[in-house]
């Protein structure tokens, strides 16, 4: 039986403010009655899938048939048809050109180039502005951008998958943060691709649109990204602005500058079109806290090894014995510094459906806090949480969840 | 919000890589609701769409099926992907399968018949999906057009009519209430059922589409071929009549 507020929400068209209790009771009874039958055995996607695959195969077969037909034509007949088609295209082109000249239409003048369309620039500029001012964007990124610590690039590159605009970049010991825009279809293609598996960590990372390579040829994996698709109504825009975090933890030493090369990912553009090369300052401000604490919850031990704090991220490196967590991994749920508790909302952890995308962290790895708490000293207390996968379900009851709390001091 | 559960994308990314596309749709649905903040995973009250006992997949597809234009846009993106990817169609399947089943349970004689018809609906929908265009009819309404036609054809073919008097047992809600309350509930449902039996087939269809399929008036209008205003008026009148009869006893 639905609670009253849900019932009213579900049947807002039937239950108006002036509806009486009797009508509400009737609607409740009807809802209960019509939704009572439980899911029967055999009514599942697993059961339906073979039938659908058969339909798919039949469609493929049907599609293949017309492609075979031209082969049946004699070469002479086929050649005639091709000649006729070419002639028709030439005539149409000449007619169109004449028409454009006559009517004064100017949108195909030769001195115009597609990648410098003024409307596109306006759209990109608005998207970047929104992305960096959006309340979901970490405050530290907003502050870094406002204080001019990002390096402005404003590089536009026309590619086979549309224009790529690199607006700005910032680099520290945790991340190379890139702000760029691409065609929405390109970004959608990237996130729809099967993830890249990193064998040494068993991590599966979504395919980024752009690949970032250091001067020594090291490809920086993308850890997370946040996107903005424009003002409401959303998704009408053709462009997407992306705030992408590339993992810089593998960069050795204390460089003052980083030479980076950007290209389209191979899966997005098989030729891996180059976007550009540039050198940016490397911000060496980094605090490393060796915590090395092990906490056990419901028999599951988790060790917080160290915390690396930089202007772009607070990264908690943890390690555990193999836990069956359904591939989800521990998630930070609370951080308190000097007694003040911080909402877990800015924890993208690694990914969620709020515009954050990122890799999975299976059992060991790190979890992240992307907000501006890097300069705060005092006693830090972080709580990580994980659901337990029981083989068929991801249990969410508190009694089944593992919670680990670690306390350490940042000076 | 369902999508508030973190770990969503990486579950897909690891276990069901092809499901990265639906994540985009979830993202879009989330944007539609204008909520960017997400609750603590410990706070189950805020995760009302994430239920224990359901698989993660079942939870993921249990997003509210609102009728806002924005959500339609988001769903349309999913439908477009499903045209070429059966795995994406799986998300649509999981999202609507119980609505279709509940609706067909009112049209079929047995659980098994309803189950088989439900699978056929999705098979037909998948087959016809490349021809489907969102303009004019939302995907959900289109799905129930198929369901309605299939149920009608099925019984026409078998020269049988739905025997509603066989259904009550199957459609009584299970309850964990005490025996006395249960008895009162049972009597109320029995009474309501008798009233439903007295309705015309068309009126029963309206109720099934509204309560079992959870379609809006405008979606029902697409299925039954009437105007949304007419459907809304008919439903309102029908409920008024039922209300008076139901509370007379």
Strand portion of chain B? under 5%
Number of strands of chain B: 0
Please state the oligomeric state of the protein chains shown: heterodimer
What sort of overall outline of chain A do the alpha carbons produce when their principal axes are compared? globular
**What coarse outline of chain B follows from CA principal-axis ratios?**
globular
Radius of gyration of chain B from CA coordinates:
20 Å
Q: Classify the helix fraction of chain B into a percent range.
A: 55-70%
Spans of at least 5 consecutive residues with low confidence of chain A: 64-79, 96-120, 345-364, 389-399
Order of helices and strands of chain B: HHHHHHHHHHHH
What is the strand content of chain A?
A: 35-45%
Helix content of chain A: 25-40%
The arrangement of helices and strands of chain A along the chain is HHHHHHEEEHEEEEEEEEEEEEEEEEEEE
What is shown here, in short?
The complex is a heterodimer of chains A (411) and B (249). Chain A is α+β, with helices and mostly antiparallel strands and 411 residues long.
Explain the overall architecture.
The complex is a heterodimer of chains A (411) and B (249). In chain A, 27% of the residues lie in helices and 35% in strands. Chain A is α+β, with helices and mostly antiparallel strands. In chain A, the strands form five sheets. In chain A, strands 1, 2, 3, 6, 7, 8, 9, 10, 11 and 17 form a ten-stranded mixed beta sheet that branches. A four-stranded antiparallel beta sheet of chain A has the order 12-13-14-18, with no helix packed on it. Chain A has a four-stranded antiparallel beta sheet with strand order 16-15-19-22, with no helix packed on it. Mean pLDDT of chain A is 73; it is low at 64-79, 96-120, 345-364 and 389-399. By secondary structure, chain B is mainly α. In chain B, 65% of the residues lie in helices and 0% in strands. Chain B starts with 7 loop residues before the first helix and ends with a helix. The relative contact order of chain B is 0.09. The model of chain B is unreliable at 1-69 and 157-170 (pLDDT under 50). The chains are: A alpha+beta (411), B mainly alpha (249). Chains A and B meet through α2, α3, α7, β15 and β17 of A and α1, α2, α3, α4 and α5 of B.
